[in-house]
Specification:
The relative contact order is 0.10. The chain has helices spanning about 1-10, 50-60, 75-85, 100-105, 120-135, 150-155, 160-180, 195-205, 220-235, 250-265, 290-300, 315-320, 350-365; strands at about 20-25, 25-30, 35-40, 65-70, 90-95, 110-115, 140-145, 185-190, 210-215, 245, 275, 305-310, 325-330, 335-340, 340-350. Strands 8-7-6-5-4-3-10-9 form an eight-stranded parallel beta sheet. Strands 11-12-13-14-15 form a five-stranded mixed beta sheet, with helices on one face. The chain is built from 13 helices and 15 strands. The protein is about 40% helix and about 20% strand. By secondary structure, the chain is an alpha/beta fold. It binds iron/sulfur cluster. Iron/sulfur cluster binds near residues 279, 280, 281, 316 and 320.
Length: about 375
């Protein structure tokens, strides 16, 4: 109990904005539901086996919704089996108007992402919304700074946050008023993180539909993580955001891990242990980086709220990491294991990881309340 209080006390207080609750399949988004983590596959969708194996990896990492691109007919036809086998709801990403959206609905997708501004023919949009309504398929209105409709661009001169919000509000109102359909969520993405923040903030003042938050074209693992953390961290602190997609030019599984790290550091959601590690210095007596990597990978399979530490020396390590539940510190050919700041074991370097994992399991037996169900 003492530890739980200690863990909770270090997070900022976030008061989430109350949004409507919508459903993608069985997954509820908005309201008081947890901020849902989603990602998008990077395999050609028609390669069913590869796509399903990526979805399985995403699911194992904690992904709750998955989006797939449907650029062509063969990708759409693959959806039936993908939806059937996927452990999480599947959202089809429809970039341009056409018949592909209808076909995706026929294959059983639970969500559709559209950019209504790209529909030249309004009647096609109406037909598609009607078809979504019949099947209760959730529609994401995905506004992107790079593809705003010409009349909005003409009015606002450039794809400003206000222009993006104008487009989003217009389409939400249109679908609500004309179709009386509310199973909607909205995104307003720009590759500029501050524009993204402004657009979501402005929209959140005008609407209570749940928001899918993310920065588009954010780049590779390092620049993309920085941009996403700035934008999404800022928005979450303001209470804005109901589902998160961290877009990265990287393995999509990394998107899920980054999303959970952002949520964890705001005290909004935890799925697996936090692993802290020292940056190493001249006192380090062990090859710390591979050791840290092994602990991180192992810890991702433990669904528990824990703080683990991997430290480079026995002199300063346990003290510097005294807030961790458990930790290891390396010495010359040996390592020590500490629990809540106290050294409990000294073991040979080659036995260190195995002994540490056993101690973590023992700790969890003593603290079953730490498991996340
Ligand atoms: S724990 Fe030891 S090795 Fe790591 S940074 Fe601190 S003093 Fe250096």
């Amino acid at each position: 109990m003492g530890n739980m209080r200690r863990l909770v006390a270090y997070y900022p207080k976030v008061k989430r904005k109350k949004t409507r609750v919508v459903y993608v399949g069985q997954v509820a988004i908005g309201g008081e539901n947890p901020i849902r983590v989603q990602s998008m596959t990077s395999t050609p969708t028609w390669q069913i086996k590869e796509t399903l194996s990526q979805i399985e990896r995403l699911y194992q990492a904690g992904c709750e919704l998955v989006r797939v691109a449907i650029p062509d007919e063969k990708s759409v036809l693959a959806l039936k089996e993908i939806v059937k086998e996927s452990p999480i709801p599947v959202i089809a990403d429809l970039h341009f108007a056409g018949t592909l959206g209808f076909k995706a609905l026929e294959q059983g997708v639970q969500g559709l992402r559209i950019n209504p501004g790209t529909f030249k023919d309004r009647s096609k949009l109406d037909d598609l919304i009607r078809a979504c309504k019949e099947r209760r398929v959730c529609v994401r209105i995905g506004i992107n700074a790079g593809s705003l409709e010409p009349e909005i661009l003409e009015r606002f001169k450039y794809p400003s946050p206000s222009a993006m919000v104008e487009s989003a509000v217009r389409w939400v109102e249109y679908i609500v008023e004309k179709h009386d359909y509310y199973n909607l969520k909205v995104s307003l993405k720009s590759s500029n993180w501050w524009h993204t923040v402004k657009a979501y903030q402005l929209f959140a003042r005008r609407s209570d539909f749940p928001l899918h938050v993310g920065v588009t074209e954010a780049g590779g693992l390092i620049p993309g993580t920085v941009k996403n953390t700035l934008a999404l961290g800022y928005l979450f602190l303001k209470g804005i955001g109901d589902t998160i997609r961290v877009s990265l030019t990287a393995d999509p599984v990394e998107e899920v891990y980054v999303a959970y790290e952002i949520l964890r550091n705001l005290g909004l959601r935890t799925l697996y242990p936090e692993v802290i590690a020292c940056p190493t210095c001249g006192r380090c007596e062990i090859d710390l980086m591979p050791l840290y990597q092994k602990v991180v990978e192992w810890a991702r399979n433990i669904k528990a709220n824990l703080k683990l530490a991997v430290m480079g020396c026995v002199v300063n390590g346990p003290g510097e990491a005294r807030l961790a539940d458990l930790g290891i510190a390396g010495g010359k050919g040996v390592g020590i294991i500490f629990r809540e700041g106290k050294i409990i074991k000294k073991v040979k370097e080659e036995d260190l990881l195995k002994a540490f994992f056993e101690e973590v399991e023992r700790f969890l037996q003593d603290h079953p309340e730490r498991f996340i169900t």
